[in-house]
Amino acid sequence: MTSSGSDSNDGYRKAHEPSGTSLLMSVIRTLSASEDQQQREVEKAKIEKAYRECDQKLDTLINDNYETLTKTIQSYSSISARIKTSREKMRQVKEDLTSCKELLHCKRDELRRLWLEGVEQKRILSMLDNLEKVKNAPQKLDSFISKKYYLHATELATETGESNKMTL
Questions:
Q1: Where does the chain have alpha helices with state H?
Q2: pTM for the whole thing?
Q3: Which of 15, 23, 29, 57 is least enclosed, having the fewest CB within 10 Å?
Q4: Once rounded to an integer, what is the mean pLDDT over residues 133-151?
Q5: 50, 13 in Cβ contact below 8 A?
């Protein structure tokens, strides 16, 4: 028989043979309807023969397609391992993202606090600069007056007075 003849016979058999479920239902009906042990034994023998034939066909198909089956099983194992690895990596990425989100939330609060501290430090530094100017003002005033730079002395006195008002 040629390959195409075998394929057409298999198609014919598949179309005209009962499926596994309908075969089982047929066997159950036959066994239920049979009244004597001999008819049941005949049915049992038919089933055992069909089982042996099916087992032989399966063995033949496995032997004929051993390489293909082996490659398919190896490919499936490889793909399954890759999927498992990918799932583990995705789980780790999700955990890392959740952790980063929590840390960023904490960092945001900390950054806000640090920014406020920075603003306070700048204000304190500005106040210290003003205090130093006020502290040095009497010496500079005396120097300007002794050199008869009255305009500079007046400007320094005015600036010092204004900076004292702003500092308070």
A1: 3-16, 20-33, 37-64, 66-146, 150-167
A2: 0.39
A3: 15
A4: 90
A5: no
